Amino acid sequence: MQYTTGNSPFQPSLPNGNMAMMNGVGVKRPRMEDSESDSEGGNCEMISPRPKFSAAKIVPGRRFFSLKAAGCVFQSESWQPRGETLYQALQHEVLVNASNIEQISFSEGLAFVGNEAGAYVRTETGHMIHLWRHDNEQRKLYVSRTFLFTNYQMYSEVREVLEQL
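User: That's the sequence. What structure does it adopt?
Assistant: Structure tokens below.
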């Protein structure tokens, strides 16, 4: 599985611009300061520094990760380039099979949020995680699913879980 973001596929950059070095085990990051832990929007409650439950977790013995529904987590299975993707609220907890994912990329910026019927409601600022798969017929990668997080701490927890896979 290959992680890509920002500047290079081999040296992902952190949200604060610092470069993180991959050492084969994971990425070591500086701890978040209290000033950085404020919610970035949405109706998602803040998670304490040591939450009783996590936004995501690895299912033991499998290559699945669990993602809990919250007011600040959105998804789309129809990714569009140039920020044209319409995200809908994640309604239920999902288990994602990571063994079928070829690559994971991360981005941040503005995103369109829609209602359950798929109609545009508002624009949100957030962090996105894109899950890429390989299409054998077209012989290229495509985004099979993408998640939008309007709460940075929740995004950070999920990203940390993905780095442990």
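Confidence is low (pLDDT under 50) at residues 4-42, 46-52.
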